[in-house]
Design a protein that fits this description.
Blueprint lengths: L23 E7 L16 E8 L2 E5 L3 E4 L4 E4 L5 E5 L6 E7 L8 H12 L6 E4 L6 H17 L4 H20 L10 H16 L6 H7 L4 H11 L4 H19 L4 H7 L5 H12 L3 H14 L1
Helix pairs in contact: 2-3, 4-5, 4-6, 5-6, 7-10
């Protein structure tokens, strides 16, 4: 059976929750259930905890590609573009839990102090728990407890799942020391964060510097100044890099045609995409895919 996710045009996944009105979803999946053994590039408002049960899997975001082995886990932050793909076309089984962060607290002060600084910081894309991580066993146990609760569905079991997730969120904050010296964003940092987040969510569309500036509620000139100060590049160069990095992942992990990848990444013309890709990486998109294929065959 092939999994068919409900993905909107802006790449947002609409999740069907286990109990209508309670934004929690749990399931066990196999990567072979996805077309071409690869999930669709997507994002959602929910936090996502994924743990590999057997086999291996690549977790891919707009900037990272992480290999997960059996018993490794990853916590994906809210509103982060990502997808999963097989390793060498081998099957993999994994648990997946999604929970909307609105459940974590109903207290405005607690949300402002402890939740939003994590959700809204674009640097906190995902948290990886390999075998060497101090939280590896703890996260695996939390995942097991959640799946066990979902399996038996005793009265009030969503409360058990929520308590496990709240503890996980607290431990991530504590272990990663997320608020040490950087919990308060300056107005400039906050504006830049809103603009880069807008780019990451809309890079596939035709967007301008004015659109980017509006996302940060700053002027066009201020937009240029902030990107030059903090990213050492222009807003459009940042946008182009996001598109190219996404294209790299699609060339490596999908069988999409070059023209379809060009379109999916927001390039108006395939020829321009090819020229831009070659200028950045020293090889054409087709040449890059061929190189990756040959390396995979060697191993």
């Amino acid at each position: 059976m092939q999994i068919s996710n409900h993905i909107l045009a802006n790449k947002q996944e609409i999740i069907t929750y286990d109990i209508p009105g309670i934004p929690i979803h749990t399931e066990t999946r196999r990567i072979s259930e996805y077309n071409n053994m690869r999930s669709i590039l997507h994002w959602h408002e929910d936090l996502e905890l994924m743990r590999v049960i057997s086999g291996e899997l690549y977790y891919c975001s707009e900037r990272n590609r992480t290999l997960l082995h059996t018993n490794d886990s990853i916590l994906v932050n809210s509103r982060r573009l990502h997808y999963y793909t097989s390793v060498g076309q081998q099957d993999c089984t994994f648990h997946c839990v999604t929970l909307n962060p609105q459940l974590l607290t109903g207290n405005p002060m607690m949300r402002e102090l402890y939740i939003d600084p994590v959700l809204d910081n674009i640097e906190y894309r995902e948290f990886f728990f390999p075998k060497t991580h101090r939280m590896h066993s703890q996260v695996a146990e939390i995942s097991d407890n959640i799946m066990e609760a979902a399996l038996h569905q005793e009265y009030g079991y969503p409360l058990s799942i929520l308590s496990q997730f709240e503890w996980l969120f607290y431990e991530v904050i504590r272990v990663y020391n997320l608020f040490h010296g950087s919990e308060v964003l300056t107005p400039d940092r906050s504006a830049l964060q809103m603009m880069t987040h807008y780019i990451l969510m809309n890079y596939m569309e035709k967007i301008s510097v004015d659109d980017i500036a509006a996302a940060g509620s700053v002027s066009r000139s201020k937009c240029y100044h902030l990107f030059n100060e903090f990213e050492q590049q222009t807003p459009l160069d940042y946008l182009k890099d996001v598109r190219l990095k996404t294209a790299q992942g699609l060339l490596r992990d999908s069988k999409l045609k070059i023209i379809d990848i060009s379109d999916a990444c927001g390039f108006s013309y395939c020829n321009y995409f090819t020229q831009t890709f070659k200028k950045k990486y020293g090889v054409t998109p087709l040449g890059y895919r061929k190189r990756i294929t040959e390396q995979a065959e060697v191993f």
